[in-house]
């Protein structure tokens, strides 16, 4: 007898739990096939998926700098992370800061992602950085992408970052010059730049990922990735409906966080919308609403940092007096991850209680689908059967209801994905489905090694390429710097010997303050460079390995996806992990590192 989706888990018993485990495994196993982890290389004609559809190309003369003209700090990447770093450097009175980015303006992921309905999924009051510094309050609890992008531009103006910025420019190489203690940086514009310090703030959410679907290059109609939305095709704008789709049949591939936001808009305007689903997402309440302009007028200075830290503390097991954000993130985490009932339990009992709590949470989400979706068959296909944290949680107040529209059809691929793309549409479950326009909501290339992700290699003080040093695994201090590469800092991504948080901006703010401290301390010492002591690097790599949580069993049981490398979670070296005890303790380690004089770094004038 199989699991009955109508069962209530209010009084969960052992038999119910066993049936759910079997259901989860069946759903997982049917998705373990073929080369799911493969992607379509964006070469040749497919490079069009990388085109900037927002800013026309602009010519400019190449720049050739000598050692005397070196920039103080070159920040590669002008997204929120790069902007926060530059702002912290300005607070330290560092003069020449140059931003460089392939995009046509600042904003990073918010420059590229302008698809209809795009918003942040973490409260804007803790996600949008530097609100107090710019005296700005977001208009909504979960701000639109256009508002976040405009706020990024305001940060760049406020801190005077546009003057030396180079946009529509890609770094092609970096080499350390021992004689002058500077980085030589080349670009695709023919620039020969010089910088005393380089910060790589290139986030993982900028290069579109296309699945390896046979025939993907043969579709004859307009097609694009959601991060390069083509309003020339759809009409409208990021803040108005794509009104040219009223007579079009649109196919949307993907049902992750992006799809949750754009499906309601597309369903409202398209003649017909097919949503092609491989694995359904969780969809909890978002509860968006306006924010009053004077909401924090009477708060003591530092309110945003306190609110941001309160959120992270709640999610990662710390103790707080009150839940300041009080949203679906904190409600769910309190139930399945940091529930007070879990305290003092033995390991086996703890795992059992967490699994039961997870079952209850997931059943509540599945019950919500039954409440909101009229057709029982569609509702059943929208239900996720996996542990809650196997995929990034989703939140929306309109996505599920959109499938009640007569012009919207969910095409469930039964876990197998699309079989083929052909000139007039796609093939799913052996059936040809004709579409006029094909949109990929299929995420980004997030798991590639750093040098592949940034598109160039870095040559250190001994002539060694970074890709060569890291070929057998990462070797860093705190995930931020690596021995033999002076005056180079990395903004951390997932599994890079640092930490990431649900609110990515919280980790960005912490690392930016740390970077500014290291750079400022180097200057105050009168030193030309800082570098990592090899012994400190060895100690940190050992710490990462020793503290790495053993979550392999959890990941192995998860439905295939980005978090478990499409069902193969053990392919990464053990050292290529986050710090195992979480962000709160990690940030305490950084604070101690600063307070004790940056032990583990060495400083000098020449190498």
Task: Write up what this structure looks like.
This protein is an alpha/beta fold. The chain has a domain at 67-207 and 446-604: FAD/NAD(P)-binding domain (3-Layer(bba) Sandwich). Helices cover 32% and strands 13% of the residues. The protein has 19 helices and 17 strands. It has helices at residues 14-29, 80-91, 109-112, 124-127, 131-134, 145-158, 231-234, 257-269, 303-315, 328-336, 347-372, 376-381, 399-402, 450-454, 466-469, 504-524, 534-547, 552-557, 583-595, and strands spanning 71-76, 97-100, 171-177, 182-187, 192-200, 223-225, 249-253, 272-277, 408-412, 420-422, 425-428, 431-434, 437-440, 458-459, 488-490, 529-532, 601-604. The strands form four sheets. Strands 1, 2, 3, 4, 5, 14 and 15 form a seven-stranded mixed sheet that branches. Strands 6-13-7-8-9 form a five-stranded parallel sheet, covered by helices on one side. β3 and β4 (182-187) form a beta hairpin. α2 (80-91) runs parallel beside α16 and α16 runs parallel beside α19. The longest helix has 26 residues, at 347-372. The chain is globular, with a radius of gyration of 24 Å. The termini are far apart. The model is unreliable at 1-9 (pLDDT under 50).
């Amino acid at each position: 007898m199989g699991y009955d989706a109508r069962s209530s888990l209010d009084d969960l018993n052992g038999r119910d739990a066993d049936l759910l485990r079997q259901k989860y495994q069946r759903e997982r196993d049917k998705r373990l096939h073929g080369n799911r982890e493969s992607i379509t290389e964006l070469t040749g004609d497919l490079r069009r998926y990388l085109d900037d559809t927002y800013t026309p190309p602009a010519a400019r003369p190449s720049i050739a700098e000598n050692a005397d003209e070196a920039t103080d700090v070159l920040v590669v990447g002008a997204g929120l992370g790069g902007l926060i770093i530059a702002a912290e450097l300005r607070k330290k009175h560092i003069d020449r800061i140059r931003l460089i980015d392939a995009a046509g303006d600042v904003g990073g992921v918010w420059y590229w992602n302008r698809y209809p309905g795009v918003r942040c999924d973490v409260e804007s009051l803790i996600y949008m950085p530097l609100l107090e510094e710019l005296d700005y309050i977001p208009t909504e609890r979960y701000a639109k992408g256009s508002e976040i992008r405009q706020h990024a531009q305001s940060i760049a103006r406020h801190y005077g970052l546009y003057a030396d910025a180079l946009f529509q420019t890609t770094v092609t190489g970096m080499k350390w010059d021992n004689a002058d203690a500077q980085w030589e940086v080349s670009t695709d514009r023919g620039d020969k730049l010089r910088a005393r310090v380089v910060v790589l703030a290139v986030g993982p959410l900028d290069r579109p990922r296309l699945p390896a679907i046979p025939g993907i290059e043969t579709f004859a109609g307009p097609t694009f990735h959601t991060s390069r939305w083509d309003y020339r095709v759809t009409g409208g704008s990021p803040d108005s409906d794509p009104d040219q789709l009223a007579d079009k049949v649109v196919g949307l591939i993907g049902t992750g966080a992006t799809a949750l936001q754009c499906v309601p808009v597309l369903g409202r305007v398209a003649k017909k919308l097919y949503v092609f689903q491989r694995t359904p997402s969780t969809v909890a309440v978002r509860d968006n609403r306006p924010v009053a302009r004077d909401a924090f007028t009477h708060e003591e200075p530092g309110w945003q940092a306190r609110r941001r830290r309160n959120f992270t503390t709640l999610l990662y097991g710390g103790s707080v007096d009150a839940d300041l954000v009080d949203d679906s993130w904190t409600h769910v985490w309190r139930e399945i991850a940091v529930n007070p009932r879990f305290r003092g339990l033995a390991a086996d009992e703890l795992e059992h209680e967490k699994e039961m709590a997870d079952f209850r949470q997931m059943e509540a989400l599945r019950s919500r689908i039954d409440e909101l979706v009229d057709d029982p068959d569609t509702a059943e296909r929208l239900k996720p059967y996996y542990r809650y944290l196997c995929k990034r949680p989703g939140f929306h107040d309109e996505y599920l209801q959109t499938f009640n529209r007569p012009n919207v059809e969910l095409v469930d691929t039964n876990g197998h994905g699309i079989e083929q793309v052909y000139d007039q549409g796609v093939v799913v479950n052996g059936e040809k489905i004709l579409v006029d326009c094909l949109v990929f909501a299929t995420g980004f290339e997030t798991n590639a090694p750093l040098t592949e992700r940034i598109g160039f290699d870095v040559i250190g003080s001994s002539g060694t390429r970074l890709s060569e040093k890291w070929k057998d695994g990462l070797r860093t201090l705190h995930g931020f710097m690596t021995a033999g590469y002076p005056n180079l800092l990395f903004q951390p991504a997932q599994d890079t010997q640092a930490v990431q948080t649900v609110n990515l901006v919280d980790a960005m703010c912490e690392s930016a303050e740390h970077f500014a401290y290291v750079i400022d301390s180097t200057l105050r010492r009168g030193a030309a460079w800082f570098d990592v002591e090899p012994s400190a690097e060895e100690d940190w790599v050992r710490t990462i390995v020793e503290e790495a949580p053993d979550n392999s069993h959890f990941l192995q049981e998860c439905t295939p996806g980005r978090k478990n490398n499409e069902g193969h979670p053990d392919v990464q070296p053990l050292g290529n992990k986050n710090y195992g005890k979480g962000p709160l303790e990690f940030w305490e380690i950084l604070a101690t590192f600063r307070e004790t004089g940056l032990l583990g770094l060495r400083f000098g004038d020449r190498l």
